[in-house]
TrEMBL record:
UniProt-recorded name of the protein: Monogalactosyldiacylglycerol synthase
Organism of origin: Syntrophobotulus glycolicus (strain DSM 8271 / FlGlyR)
SUPFAM superfamilies (alphabetical): UDP-Glycosyltransferase/glycogen phosphorylase
Highest rank taxon of the organism: Bacteria
Location of the protein in the cell: Membrane
GO biological process, one term: glycolipid biosynthetic process
Cellular component, GO, one term: membrane
InterPro entries: Diacylglyc_glucosyltr_N, Glyco_trans_28_C, Glycosyltransf_28_UgtP
Length: 389
């Protein structure tokens, strides 16, 4: 039997797509022999020098400063059958170096966690330039037409709602697998909440609220968040964690505001132990990113989605609300009211936690990996039967 050669193509455009690819690679490595070749590449690295950086910077500035424009772009490009100028632009963009990379590896299956590479590879397959099975992992809880392409052999999705929309768009049900969006295996652990709180220097008995999202998410204005917290009843037994991510300027602004908070507060920069912070918490306040949502729900952590970006984050927020494991809040005043209400009604917070924990399939990265391995094996057997006559 030939060693498996699996290529995962992602993009750092948006962050969550690449994280899903990394989690999927982790899941595949946990299930395949050590000699299996599993590569994970960033499709943006095949763009002309500097182009990917400019595109990512423009996107991040747009969603931070003019999110309504991104919402309009999302809606305008959401066509399931008609090819539009954007698709044609993407499909013709620097294919030669990408094709060379694929031919050098000779993968027996290619997996996409970004719609852009999925569209390019589907077009290459249509032209006969590649002849291997293609898998698309949809990394949101809402489907967009840019994910849907002829020539994709398998769609891996996070929930039933996305499966239903794909079927409506003409995709056969047997070509869709609900596994959950792949997340790192660390989020599948059983972690001790009280011990983790002690490790953080927190009171193990106080309700702990975690803010995440970075400089482009809900915690981008340090003073706004501190004011929202300080409007709460000071007699409430609460403590707060805020994660700033890699934005040093934002982190320093948080540290300056930290002393103004009327409740115990710990501000952190970039961390590689998010699963511990989530497991230590009772409630997450974040934007509507699908990977963060997946990680939180897997750990049974309810979510307040604060000012989700129009487009995919709106759809992700609607999905979370449909599970009962979270709510959407659109202003800092509403955030204060909802935090106050949930803090004073711990039974409701416990019920939300229970619903969050049952919202998604467990072991998503390994289930997605198994679906990919099964498709590869099916293709291998089919080829052997053709050769054997």
């Amino acid at each position: 039997m030939f060693e498996p050669r699996i290529l995962i193509v992602s993009s750092k455009f948006g962050g969550g797509h690449y994280q899903a690819g990394e989690a999927l690679a982790e899941g595949l490595r946990s299930m395949l022999p050590k000699d299996a070749q599993i590569r994970h590449c960033d499709y943006g690295s095949f763009f002309p020098k500097g182009t990917d950086f400019l595109m990512r910077t423009a996107y991040l500035k747009m969603v931070k400063n003019t999110p309504s424009i991104w919402g309009k772009i999302f809606k305008y490009t959401n066509t399931t059958h008609a090819e539009n100028k954007y698709r044609n632009f993407v499909k013709g963009f620097r294919q030669k170096s990408f094709i060379h990379y694929i031919r050098e590896m000779e993968p027996d299956i290619i997996v996409n966690t970004h719609f852009m590479s999925a569209g390019v590879l589907a077009e290459l397959k249509r032209k006969g330039l590649i002849k291997v099975p293609l898998v698309t992992v949809v990394t949101d809880y809402v489907i967009h037409g840019m994910w849907i392409h002829p020539g994709i052999d398998l769609y891996i999705v996070g929930c039933r709602q996305v499966q239903e929309k794909l079927i409506e768009a003409g995709i056969k049900e047997e070509s869709i697998m609900i596994t959950g969006i792949p997340i790192r295996l660390e989020f599948e652990q059983d972690l001790d909440k009280e011990e983790l709180r002690k490790k953080l220097g927190f009171d193990p008995n106080k309700t702990t609220i975690l803010f995440m999202g970075g400089a482009y998410g809900p915690t981008s204005k340090a003073t706004e968040i501190i004011k929202a917290i300080n409007r709460l009843n000071p007699r409430l037994q609460l403590q707060f964690l805020i994660v700033a991510g890699k934005d040093e300027e934002y982190y320093q602004a948080l540290k300056q505001s930290e002393k103004e908070c009327l409740f115990p507060l710990k501000c952190l920069g970039y961390v590689n132990y998010v699963e511990e912070l989530m497991a230590a918490s009772d409630l997450l306040v974040s934007k509507g990113g699908a990977l963060t949502i997946s990680e939180a729900l897997t750990l049974g952590l309810p979510i307040l989605m604060f000012k989700p970006i129009p487009g995919q984050e709106d759809g992700n927020a609607e999905f979370v609300e449909s599970t009962g494991g979270g709510m959407t809040v659109l202003s800092s005043e509403e955030l204060t009211r909802v935090l106050q209400y949930l803090s004073q009604n711990p039974g409701i917070l416990r019920e939300m936690s229970k619903l969050a924990g049952s919202a998604l399939p467990n072991c998503s990265s390994q289930k997605a990996a198994r679906a990919i391995i099964n498709l590869r094996e099916k293709e291998r057997v089919s080829k052997e039967q053709v050769i054997g006559g």
